[in-house]
Write a structure and sequence with these properties.
The complex is a heterodimer of chains A (699) and B (677). Chain A has 25 helices and 17 strands. Chain A is of the alpha/beta class. In chain A, the strands form 4 sheets. In chain A, strands 7-1-8-9-12-17 form a 6-stranded parallel beta sheet, sandwiched between helices. The longest helix of chain A is centred in the N-terminal third of the chain and has 29 residues, at 25-53. Chain B is an alpha/beta fold. Helices cover 37% and strands 12% of the residues of chain B. In chain B, strands 7-1-8-9-12-17 form a 6-stranded parallel beta sheet, sandwiched between helices. In chain B, helix 1 (2-17) packs antiparallel against helix 2 and helix 5 (100-106) packs parallel to helix 8. Chain B is globular and about 80 Å long. The chains are: A alpha/beta (699), B alpha/beta (677). At the A-B interface, helix 1, helix 4, strand 4, helix 8 and helix 10 of A face helix 1, helix 2, helix 3, helix 8 and helix 10 of B.
Chain lengths: 699, 677
């Protein structure tokens, strides 16, 4: 109230002054002088009074003198004045904002799908398990070095990230894992935040699961039938069990929910890397105890109704490669958003990227996202399943319904293929130099990569100037040049490359993950846990009634392959490669900023998210012997219409899709008991079916 | 910038208002504005004419100054190293003792047994899952615990959502308020007010983390069995304990606090009882899964506070709600009727009834008799230093022959509280007719059951003069029939004559230690850990409220004081030894006598230990709530208690800790209680 009065006073007092510049200047001046005199007398009187009170106080004296001299505007005074004004106005606005009713009468926000379905009579039926993906789950500190004083049980990851700014090195140290074991470094315990709060919001205001949770709550879900399977996403999957017993915990919770909710099977909703984590869980839970959970072969059939994979990177994402190679992925780790391009160069001497790389390379889980299936899936030097994808067509295709004109599209693609020479060769996931990314394979230098990479003894160049150690420092200049000379890497040779540039990490991680295709799934070696998260090397459990959904966004250009260059040979540059952001294609080309794009959800290409549901598991295949039904549900991306919409209710982006209304409705309906057929079966906008057909894999 | 904009706004506002003195109209206004602008451009410093200070300018200046200084301080505070306050403290008071976790880690202790916390009443957070229109935007926000911000913003809405259904004791239609889960449920009650946080931090020092520490959060408003019916909380606890035992290979140590003690008693019976009513764990579940139950401040026999809480919402702090309704609001000054709202809300909470004194006159004393009779309130401070127990009691007996009639839990009038029973004239209230003809109750916004009672009923209650633990139940039946009807289906307050009677299979007896047998688990240990040395409410002097229609007709007679300074009667409350909330008798008796050795309540001979912690108030303000406190909640920060818990969690037995550790007269008092064991 006070501020209101003040403002009004301001409005009232000021005009009096302005009138002195009007035609009636004189009169006004007189008036003003009078006023001034009055004021002076008043202030003098005041002075007298004050003088009586406390003579000795020098400060007040000074003030008084100032007043006598009609106090001049000094700079600092005006500053204070301005700040005062701003604060007052700010408070006023805040006050008004709070006194507003929660919902403006005129503005009716669109009804949430939960409320709508609730009215239709859709009620909570099956318990729901949410499995968060990489980097969206919070991590908190349980034990740390002295530099983390006062951070006990505070979030290091997620939330406001204030600690990065306050003590960046300390923060990095605590988020790193041990380089040898991939577990905690001695004296440091950072653990996943449990419960729904683990991943409802990633940062204040940036929802991940919150919207879905809210809508589930509208149809009657609460904590007793909704569980967030939070796990430490930095660890390899089996290590989450070794260290935290996260898998046992998940098993026990699912069993509990199954029992307490009237023996209703659970609906599992994994997102992003959580999809692979849950694949791992499916195998783990049925296998006998020393390595597995001992649930017995019928466990999944008894306990799981449906798995609704959101943005599943079943076959990995190309992003993971660039992330490991030069920590330059656009957003697979949100780390990237915290070190903007400026810091790539050593301007501030911070070596942010190097630090980020060193930390990220201790995280085994990233390896689970490296493209799987080799050239069969991702294409070789001259071939890729997505070839013919026209980036300029992406827009147009949204207008036409995709199902019917697939053929025309196909021929269209073929025509372009024959017409244009620089058709993107997506199979070359990494090429050094723009040329190498499109010239015919016959023109490529034929170097025996294996020999090249394995034969070289790595001499350690004198890297004393490095504060930050990355494994690149152990590579000699020549071998780095050799890497670049090889020009082109497909998903097959890529692994060799990674083994070469990051030997420690790959050695650690390859004990936990595998990236091949199984020839014979009956081979007993596939009982090892390193194969469990690779859909091409594992069988789905024997659960014919279980449903598997692939829900993902389409219509956003998604990183698929990269054009690299050598970094300028600075003395202390520790990352020798970087994406050649100058490489641009023609206007319609898929090459932009050194990156070839395909259709996808901004992080995961359609191929990776859709193939398993579209073909690999469809019907009875060797990967899906019991014939669990699969559904592909795509969500066409539409950017938010206005700022008011926030991140949009029809977004198809990797994380924002969790706020997509159509998506939420699907999840709600299935959780309330609907089957895949009842919600409409497949719903496809992209070329996934055609692409899948092109992949030559034994099923 | 901004003030220019302001001027313009002022101008247009004035032009819009069209008052007489602005002759020039709109155009003139524009001209003026331009002039003003040009004047401003000449710069605030070097203008031809020094600007005058108007009042508004000074205000702005002042606000600006304050803000800048504030920001500066804030910045400094944030830039300050985290260890600074500790450094200051150490500079003033000398080096602090190591927290117990650090100390014991140096001794080589490491996490062994998984730990289960069971929080008490009111300390657990509650959050909103579904609400009415007025709770818009509060989804999954804490209604209880945290900052209580919503209480101030929309008090009536808050009260409505916190209340339960008056008939069923479950959710009212359209409202779902659920307990917060995980350690965050009760680590801090409000920002800065720790409950479990200190204990958790110390356990973490020896290697505990989320996987071997579990907070059994439950909705503390519900009756115990209803938490299972509505939320399956008991099943959840069972499953989690089983999981922790399976993954760690060791039995769990359970640490219930306050009402959690009763809740866990209930759990131990539930888990072994067969499936429809119980958890179906089989008769050796506890033996297989539980190493020790370390009850902190356990109100085994209830607390007298609960009575005054139910009777007139006047408990001192059983509900922190009380702190939110200070005495001023007792009167109708602001027309808020806060107390009435509180009463209506708390009377829908079944759990408060689990704390009504149990065991009747046998335990709590009759009209002329009570176990603590000769407790002397004045010697409390010095007793530990100068005298042994026997000397102390001898002295006390001499000093204070008359004693206090603690057995009279509620007396109407101070003299009634003191005189011998034969001199009291009592009129039985039980038959009294409840007047339905109470004058216009329609005035009252808030409905409490007292309005149904009528003047006659109120008078009858007051005429009975004195209520003991036995008759208090009848009293509550009389004044709060609905509440008690709901409650009696879930709780029972008697003493079992024959524990083998099949009726004791019913869950309403499970949380009463006098009507249940402990599980068959001879290796299990039961501890009673509680603070002593703080005056604790034990009996009340009531008076009738000056008659007005809408108010609670009874209130504590705060004018009643004892004659001497040493008297136990202060402000209408008789105090006895305890931890400020739970009298020693209630917290200690079961472990001191009721379960000691093989008794009928403890057929398998589970070992019991009493560990008392003498209260020492914090030495200075910097210590916060003290590291040697014995108060009901603050004891969770008591270093000695934490050390005991950590040792047990790391594998020690009660004997290793040193067995009993007693400061109060609990053994003597226990002897006085005539109970068949």
């Amino acid at each position: 109230m006070g501020s209101v009065l003040r403002l009004r006073k301001l409005c009232y007092v000021e005009p009096v002054k302005f009138q002195s510049f009007e035609s009636i200047k004189n009169a006004e001046k007189q008036q003003q002088q009078q006023q001034r005199q009055e004021e002076r007398t008043v202030s003098e009187a005041e002075n007298a009074v004050q003088k009586n009170g406390r003579d000795d106080d020098e400060d007040t004296k000074k003030k008084k003198e100032g007043k006598k001299k009609m106090k001049e505007w000094r700079c600092i005074d005006s500053c204070c004045w301005v700040i005062g004004c701003l604060c007052t106005v700010w408070w006023l606005l805040v006050f008004l904002y709070y006194s507003l009713p929660a919902a403006l009468p005129g503005f009716q926000p669109p009804e949430s799908p939960g409320a709508r379905l609730g009215r239709e009579g859709v009620r909570a039926l099956h318990p729901v398990v949410l499995v968060p993906g990489i980097s969206t789950g919070g991590l908190e500190l349980w034990e740390g070095k002295p530099c983390t004083e006062g951070l006990f049980r505070k979030r290091l990851w997620g939330g406001s990230f204030t600690e990065i700014l306050k003590r960046p090195l300390c923060w990095l140290e605590h988020l790193s894992l041990d380089n040898e074991t991939g577990l905690d470094p001695p004296g440091i315990r950072v653990r996943a935040v449990p419960g729904l709060v683990a991943a409802d919001y990633f940062a204040p205001g940036y929802f991940v699961w919150a919207v879905l949770i809210q809508n589930l709550a509208k149809i009657g879900y609460e904590e007793k039938n909704m569980h967030m399977a939070a796990y430490d996403w930095r660890l390899s999957f089996q290590n989450t069990e070794t260290r935290d017993q996260a898998l046992s915990r998940l098993k026990s919770t699912i069993e509990l929910m199954y029992l307490t909710n009237g023996r209703k099977k659970v609906v599992v909703v994994p997102h992003s890397m959580g999809v692979l984590y849950f694949l791992h869980f499916l195998k783990w839970v049925e296998l006998p105890p020393p390595m597995g959970g001992g649930g017995g072969p019928g466990w999944c059939a008894t306990h799981i109704k449906a798995i609704m994979n959101i943005g599943p990177p079943f076959l990995g994402v190309p992003k993971a490669v660039s992330n490991i190679l030069s920590s330059e992925a656009k957003d697979v780790a949100v780390i990237r958003s915290m070190d903007p391009g400026v810091l790539d160069s050593e301007i501030l001497g911070l070596q942010t990227l190097e630090h980020a790389m060193r930390v990220a390379r201790t995280w085994d889980s990233i390896i689970s996202l490296v493209p799987k299936g080799g050239e069969t899936i991702w294409g070789d030097l001259d071939w890729s399943p997505e070839e013919g994808h026209g980036c300029s067509l992406a827009k147009r295709r949204t207008l036409q319904s995709s199902g019917n004109n697939k053929n025309s599209n196909h021929t269209d693609g073929k025509r372009t293929f024959s017409a244009m020479k620089d058709l993107a060769k997506y199979g070359r996931i990494i090429s050094f130099g723009k040329e190498a990314s499109y010239i015919p394979s016959s023109q490529l230098p034929s170097v025996d990569l294996k020999e090249l990479l394995l034969g070289k003894p790595s001499t350690i160049s004198n890297s004393t100037c490095q504060e930050v150690w990355t494994e690149y420092n152990e590579l000699s200049r020549e071998s780095i040049r050799d890497v670049a000379d090889n020009k082109v890497y497909t998903s097959q040779t890529l692994l060799d490359l990674l083994r070469f540039v990051a030997p420690k990490m790959m050695q650690r991680a390859e004990a936990h993950f595998s990236h091949g295709i199984a020839d014979d799934l009956n081979d007993p070696k596939y009982n090892h846990y390193k194969y469990w998260s690779n859909p091409l090397e594992m069988r789905l459990p024997g659960a014919p009634d279980m449903e598997i959904y692939c829900l993902y966004g389409v219509g956003i250009p998604t990183e698929r392959s990269y054009v690299y260059k050598m970094s300028p040979t600075g003395k202390c540059k520790s990352i020798p490669f970087r994406i050649d952001s100058t490489a641009e294609g023609y206007e319609d080309s898929c090459l932009k900023g050194g990156v070839y794009f395909v259709d996808g959800d901004e992080s995961v290409p359609v191929l990776s998210s859709g193939f398993m549901c579209a073909r690999g598991w469809r019907g009875k295949t060797r990967f899906n012997p019991s014939g669990a039904t699969t559904y592909v549900r795509e969500y066409q991306h539409r950017p938010p219409a206005s700022l008011l919409e926030g991140r949009g209710s029809a977004s198809g982006a990797h994380v924002d899709i969790m706020g997509n209304v159509a998506f939420i409705e699907d999840v709600l309906r299935v959780a309330a008991g609907a089957t895949g057929e009842e919600i409409g079966g497949d719903r496809i906008y992209s070329d996934i079916m055609r692409m899948s057909e092109r992949i030559n894999i034994q099923l | 910038m901004s003030f220019l904009r302001r001027r313009r706004a002022a101008e247009s506002a004035k032009a819009g208002s069209g008052s007489g003195d602005d002759g020039g109209g709109g155009e003139g206004g524009d001209k003026k504005e331009r002039e003003v602008k040009s004047r401003r451009k000449q710069g605030p410093g070097g203008g031809e004419r020094p600007r005058r200070w108007s009042c508004v300018d000074s205000c702005c200046w002042f606000v600006g100054c304050v803000c800048s200084i504030w920001w500066l301080l804030l910045f400094l505070l944030n830039a300050m190293p985290a260890s600074f306050p500790q450094y200051v403290t150490e500079a003033i008071t000398g080096p602090l003792p190591d927290p117990p976790g650090v100390k014991l880690r140096k001794e080589g202790l490491a996490a062994r047994h998984p730990v289960v916390f069971v929080p008490g009443i009111v300390t657990g957070g509650l959050e909103l899952w579904e609400g009415h229109q007025c709770a818009e935007g509060l989804f999954r926000k804490r209604l209880w615990g945290g900052t209580f911000g919503e209480l101030y913003k929309r008090p009536l809405c808050w009260v409505e959502h916190m209340s339960l259904d008056n008939e069923t004791g479950l959710d009212p239609p359209g409202i779902r308020v659920r307990p917060v889960s995980g350690l965050v449920a009760a680590d801090y009650f409000a920002p800065g007010y720790f409950v479990w946080a200190v204990l958790i931090a110390n356990l973490a020092r020896i290697g505990y983390e989320e996987k071997n520490m579990y907070m059994a959060a439950y909705d503390w408003r519900l009756s115990f069995q209803n938490t299972e019916v509505r939320d399956q909380t008991l099943s959840r606890i069972k499953s989690n304990i089983e999981l922790m035992v399976a993954t760690s290979g060791n039995k769990v140590v359970v640490i219930p606090h306050s009402m959690g003690v009763l809740y866990f008693l209930h759990f131990m019976k539930w888990v072994e009882a067969p499936a429809p009513m119980g958890g179906g764990g089989g008769s050796d579940w506890c033996a297989k899964h539980i190493k020790a139950v370390m009850n902190i401040g356990g109100p085994f026999f209830g607390v007298p506070k609960a009575v005054s809480g139910l009777f007139s919402v006047e408990a001192r702090d059983i509900a922190v709600a009380r702190a939110l309704a200070p005495g001023v609001l007792d009167k109708d000054v602001f027309k808020f009727q806060t107390l009435q709202h509180m009463m209506r809300m708390t009377r829908t909470w079944d759990s408060t009834m689990s704390m009504i004194p149990k065991g009747g006159d046998t335990i709590w004393g009759g009209v002329d008799w009570s176990p603590e009779r000769f407790f002397n309130c004045s010697t409390k401070r010095s007793k530990n230093i100068y005298m042994t127990t026997s000397e102390r009691s001898a002295v006390r007996d001499l000093e204070n022959r008359a004693g206090v009639n603690y057995g009279r839990l509620i007396s109407f009038g101070k003299d009634v509280a003191n005189i011998h029973s034969s001199k009291i004239e009592r009129t039985d209230f039980r038959g009294a007719v409840k007047g339905r003809n109470l004058s216009n109750t329609s005035n009252c916004d808030v409905w409490t059951e007292y309005h149904d009672m009528g003047v006659g009923g109120v008078k009858a209650v007051a005429d009975y003069k004195v209520y003991t633990a036995g008759s208090i139940l009848d009293l509550l039946d009389f004044v709060a029939p609905k509440l008690m009807k709901r409650g009696s289906a879930h709780f029972s307050y008697g003493i079992a004559d024959n524990l083998d009677d099949p009726k004791y299979q019913h869950y309403r007896h499970w949380s009463n230690p006098l009507e249940t047998k402990l599980p068959n688990a001879p290796d299990m240990e039961i501890y009673s850990l509680y603070g002593v040395g703080i005056p604790t409410e034990r009996a009340y002097v009531y008076k009738l409220t000056p008659t007005s229609e809408c108010y609670i007709p009874f209130q504590i007679d705060t004018s009643a004081h004892g004659e001497s300074e040493d008297s136990c009667l202060k402000d209408g409350v008789f105090s006895a030894d305890g931890d400020e909330t739970v009298p020693v008798l209630s917290a200690g008796y079961m472990c001191a006598k009721g379960w000691r050795g093989k008794t009928r309540f403890n057929p398998s001979g589970i070992n019991t230990y009493i560990r008392e912690y003498d209260h020492a108030p914090p030495a200075n303000l910097l210590e916060g709530r003290g590291t040697q406190s014995g108060a009901h909640v603050d004891i969770m920060g008591n270093f000695a208690l934490i050390e005991d818990i950590i040792r047990v969690a790391a594998g020690a037995t009660g004997e290793d800790l040193g067995g009993d550790r007693v400061y109060s007269d609990i053994f003597k008092w226990s002897e006085k209680i005539q109970l068949q064991l």
